[in-house]
Amino acid sequence: MRLEYFQMVDRVASLDGEAIVVESTIPDASPVFEGHFPGYPLMPGVLLVETMAQASGWLLLKLMDFERMPFLMGVKEAKFRSFVGPSTPVTVHAKRIHDGSGYAVTQARIEAAGKRICDAELTLRIMDFPAPELAAAMRNRGKELGLA
Amino acid sequence: MASSFDRIADIIAENSEVPREKILPDSHVINDLGIDSLDFLDIVFAIDKAFGIKVPVEAWTQEVNAGNAPAEQYFVMKNLAARIDELVAAKG
């Protein structure tokens, strides 16, 4: 993970139909931890949501063959069940539970050492790429992840 | 079983701040009920699940934006219910 660049996914572990599993390691150090929290660094809940959203997003990009872009627009039933701190490897599971017209809904969770850290239901709006640079960047990163 | 209109009106009331009694057959979902795009997607998701269909919101929106259909055809409650009935019937 590179928190400052919002790059939350290190690698794709598996892709099976409507489900993806990705792996990442929370960095040893980041300015984020200087504020959250002094003397007790924790991965912020909003960044855990972002991590689940990105796993969902890569899944949807792959399912749409990188033709359109998913944007996070809703988070429901988010539960943060355990703290997670620097240097922790995490596994992120995301599954598409509904393929709507112009949107998709996923169920996602993050685990560390087999223990559930958090989970949520996410709604992503599906749009045409608003900029060619974004489409190219997503495809390039998708290639690095073995998805594109 | 409740009519499609009643089921859709219940879904809208559950997924927005619009009181159920204000949702009438001639209500325009956006202009009269003030449903915003995020709530509308939640409502569409709930309709998709409840009726076992995929409401083609994107195609409807494109038709309206292109001037090929009046917005009322899809977004006035009684017409929306009729469109949902058509989708359910087409599903077989």
Automatic annotation (TrEMBL), chain A:
What's the name of the protein? Answer: Beta-hydroxyacyl-ACP dehydratase
Record's keyword annotation contains Transferase: no
Q: Which PANTHER family does the record associate with it? A: 3-HYDROXYACYL-[ACYL-CARRIER-PROTEIN] DEHYDRATASE
At the top level of its lineage, which domain of life is listed?
Bacteria
Give yes or no: UniProt keyword Manganese: no
Q: Could you list this entry's UniProt keywords, alphabetically sorted.
A: Lyase
GO molecular-function terms, A-Z: lyase activity
Report the coiled-coil segments: none
TrEMBL record, chain B:
Named in its record, the pathway it takes part in is: Glycolipid biosynthesis; KDO(2)-lipid A biosynthesis
Tell me which positions the record assigns to the signal sequence: none
An example of a GO molecular function for this protein is: acyl carrier activity
Is tRNA-binding a UniProt keyword of this protein? no
This protein's record includes keyword Lipid biosynthesis:
yes
Q: What is one process in the GO biological process aspect for this record?
A: lipid A biosynthetic process
The record, for InterPro entries, names: ACP, ACP-like_sf, PP-bd_ACP, Ppantetheine_attach_site
Record's GO cellular component terms: cytosol; membrane
Q: Where is the Carrier domain?
A: 2-88
Query: Which keywords belong to this entry?
Result: Fatty acid biosynthesis, Fatty acid metabolism, Lipid biosynthesis, Lipid metabolism, Phosphopantetheine, Phosphoprotein
Name the UniProt record assigns to this protein: Acyl carrier protein AcpXL
